[in-house]
Specification:
This protein has 633 residues and is of the alpha/beta class. 22% of the residues lie in helices and 18% in strands. Strands 5, 6, 7, 8, 9 and 21 form a six-stranded mixed β-sheet that branches.
């Protein structure tokens, strides 16, 4: 492995720093960047690699701008749309069914926005069941299936085909670099592939036998609750019939076929895949040959030596160029081998009012209803702005718990994300933005001989005006405590991210050192998004106490640090957040815009033709949602 750049990146605040006793920095320094991923736009979902180590954002973190946020619990989608139309809320805090698009576009003072989802609907093929285990069979089915027909006829022209297991919205995706695609049905090509592999009608019964001359048929199992995937399964049966292969669709209970999928007792089943971020280290786990017999990891039971040969570079390289190369080659092999068939890439529909507030952010991973809309949204001058006002959300469910260390539903996360902070955040373009950190160096033994060989160390400078709501300072010691707490807590979900973290120490209140026993590009992202917790609360609770921590604000004090605090809450009715008056990124005047943006640019009109039937996605397949990385074996 080549020498890691001595300062992988260094980013310090200048005009973005709140005054509050801090010196303004003269300039924004970026030194020795080894990788920057281009902005993700909704119009061109293509990224060209540029040398840098991280996605580094230059977003102004000053905020928040509104005084309060209210979250009204409205479980029914139609009731939420009616509340939006009647000016009872400013924003619907959930993904909407695309069947409402026309109705929403006709509403006065209501805008819609489209977000490409970092996910898709796909069909898993059992790579250990003969003859599905043969690459020729899987490639033939991929060529014979008409993905454009799926998008145009089944999802009614509001989906987009996809071949790679990494969606096009992801800067790591190789989709637009592929030299061929499975978008159109290519039946003759599929037949030629099967013939060359030895599939033939040996007994002259009108159907193909496997190369060993054995009879076979294929059972395709969509969930019985989804008309979309049942229609795709029927199309797949027809595609196989074109190849003279017997197949049938057997809709059933998703829970039944999932349990059999874990045991390898299936031919083809449907799932919905979604990733919470743009990291692609999961390529080294989800399809790794060593996990082919593990029930909860490699669902297709796929094993390929060429694919696995890139795994070490993907997971242990420290420079973007090496990581990108490995991920690209793994995707190309994956597409050729076809252990699964991506049916279509999904999109999200959001809706919001524009008569009172501006600054809505169409987040690359969340859409309009997310952290940045609440943080960057501001009141129109005609309404007394740009500061002040109450931004009104609807959410489909109650806050499950104010314990933000527990796994939560999306509606809970939207609220809880406003209460705590982390070393980094991701801006609405999916780019990293330093938050509690103001500077970071990454070093190895070649940079500093005191670091053991094979180890990697991150050295952070920490902002010095952050405080907890009880008045105590939030500094490097709190961050070190948080990382060590997660690492040492036997059952905490975040522990899975930190198995290779050797230590987290705070030499001073403004300096943090985190050391890993491995060198990896991905080590940084394993720590910088974790919530920072107050030592004065969790140290007395002990390492297992987090599970029983049950704050109930505002009736019971909840020490937080985020841009908002809970000021009122009524179970099953609403939650109200008020601006933290002592937040360390003291609000400056927002930069006014006339149209909502996805990445600083107006939303291109042609993105609306790319809408997926988002509401159908939930019913279309079983969503396997893994909030915690349980990938490390």
């Amino acid at each position: 492995m080549g020498q890691i750049t001595r300062k992988i990146y260094s980013l310090q605040r200048n005009q973005f720093m709140s005054p509050n006793g801090l010196e303004r920095r003269d300039e924004l320094r970026k030194q020795h960047l080894t990788f920057i991923v281009l902005l993700v736009t909704l119009a061109a979902l293509v990224a060209t690699p540029v040398q840098s180590y991280l996605i580094v954002s230059e977003v102004n973190p000053s905020g928040p701008h509104v005084d309060m946020i209210t979250y009204e619990i409205i479980p029914d989608e139609e009731d939420a749309i009616a509340a939006l139309a009647d000016d009872e809320i400013d924003l619907i805090g959930e993904v909407l069914d695309s069947t409402y698009l026309e109705e929403l576009e006709e509403m006065e003072n209501v805008e819609t926005a489209i977000s490409p989802d970092n996910g898709y609907i796909y069909a898993i093929i059992n790579c250990q069941r003969y003859p599905l285990s043969l690459t020729a069979f899987r490639r033939a089915l991929s060529f014979a299936l008409d993905k454009n027909a799926i998008c145009e006829d089944i999802v009614e022209g509001i989906a987009t085909p996809l071949d790679s297991c990494v969606p096009k919205v992801n800067p790591f995706s190789v989709e637009d670099e592929l030299t061929y695609h499975y978008y159109d049905a290519q039946v003759q090509k599929a037949k030629d592939i099967l013939s060359a592999a030895g599939f033939a009608d040996y007994d002259e019964d009108g159907t193909l036998e496997a190369p060993d001359q054995s009879d076979f048929d294929v059972e395709i199992e969509p969930p019985e609750t989804s008309s979309t995937t049942m229609a795709i399964a029927d199309l797949m049966v027809d595609a196989l019939a074109e190849l003279d292969i017997q197949a049938e669709s057997q809709p059933g209970s998703a829970y039944d076929y999932l349990s059999r999928m874990y045991d390898g007792d299936f031919d083809i089943v449907f799932l919905a895949g979604h990733k919470p971020d743009f990291d692609v280290d999961w390529l080294g786990y989800d399809y790794w040959g060593d996990f082919a017999d593990e029930p909860y990891f490699n669902f297709p039971r796929f094993a390929n030596a060429s694919y696995d040969s890139w795994r070490d570079q993907l997971l242990t390289a420290t420079e973007y160029e090496d990581v990108y190369e490995a991920s690209k080659e793994m995707q190309k092999i994956w597409v050729y081998q076809s252990p699964a068939i991506i049916c279509y890439e999904t999109y999200r529909l959001s809706a919001y009012r524009t008569d009172r507030f501006l600054g809505f952010k169409n987040d690359a991973l969340e859409g309009i209803p997310g952290f940045w809309t609440s943080y960057e949204g501001y009141l129109k001058e005609s309404e007394g702005g740009p500061s002040g006002g109450t931004l009104r959300w609807s959410i489909p469910g109650d806050v499950a718990s104010f314990n933000y260390l527990e796994t939560q539903y999306k509606s809970s996360v939207d609220i809880l994300n406003m209460l705590h902070d982390s070393l980094f955040k991701r801006d609405w373009n999916g780019e990293d933005i330093m938050w509690l950190a103001t500077d970071c160096d990454a070093l190895t033994h070649e940079d500093d001989a005191s670091i053991p060989e094979g180890y990697m160390q991150f050295r952070f400078d920490i902002i010095q005006n952050a405080t907890w709501t009880d008045g105590e300072p939030l500094d490097a010691e709190d961050i070190a405590f948080s990382l060590n707490y997660f690492h040492d807590s036997p059952n905490h979900p975040n522990r899975a991210y930190l198995t290779e973290m050797e230590s987290a120490t705070a030499p001073s209140s403004s300096n943090l050192i985190v050391e890993f026993s491995t060198e990896s590009y991905w080590n940084l992202h394993n720590i910088v998004y974790m919530p920072i917790i107050p030592e004065q609360v969790f140290e007395p609770l002990g390492l297992s106490g987090w599970a029983n921590w049950n704050p109930y604000p505002p009736d019971k004090e909840m020490i937080t640090s985020g841009p908002f605090n809970v000021s009122r809450y009524s179970s099953e009715e609403f939650c109200e957040l008020s601006k933290n008056p002592n937040y360390f990124y003291e609000s400056e005047q927002p930069v006014t815009t006339t149209t909502p943006t996805a990445n600083g640019e107006p939303l291109p009109p042609d993105t609306f033709t790319m809408l997926i039937a988002v509401g159908a996605v939930a019913a279309a397949a079983v969503v396997i949602g893994v909030i915690v990385k349980t990938k490390r074996g």
